[in-house]
Amino acid sequence: MQAALWVAMWTMKYDMWCKMHFFGEQMHQQMAGEVVRTRGPKNMLDMLSDDFTYEDAQAVRIRERKKNSNPSQQLCMWIERGYISRDDDGIYHKTSTYLKRKQVA
Asked: Which of 94, 100, 101, 104 is closest to 47 using CA atoms?
């Protein structure tokens, strides 16, 4: 039983050491209020204005060097998730729910 406790404590300490070793500086900067840029996919919806066209979405995909520049599937997914709506003129609008969610974050 004592050995299992020792292994558990060692594992926890090693895990914390690894996190601080790899992410410590980034965590320190965030706690200090600095903006920290991390790698990873960007939110393309945030790159678009609150009202945008199909062509605007396509331009963002091209600028972000996506393999497929056709935004149709992405636009359908955003509509399904309630992030955007489309009016009769073909203009897309970010929903109030999405905009509120982004303000909180």
From this structure: 94
pTM to 2 decimal places: 0.60
Q: Which residue has the higher pLDDT, 37 or 11?
A: 11
Q: Distance between CA atoms of 56 and 46, rounded to whole angstroms?
A: 12
Residues 86 and 76: beta-carbon distance below 8 Å:
no
The token pair at 3 is: 């050995």
- Amino acid identity, position 31: M
CA distances from 42 to 8, 18, 74 (A): 37, 26, 14
* Tokens 């062509």 sit on residue: 55
Q: Which amino acid is at 20?
A: M
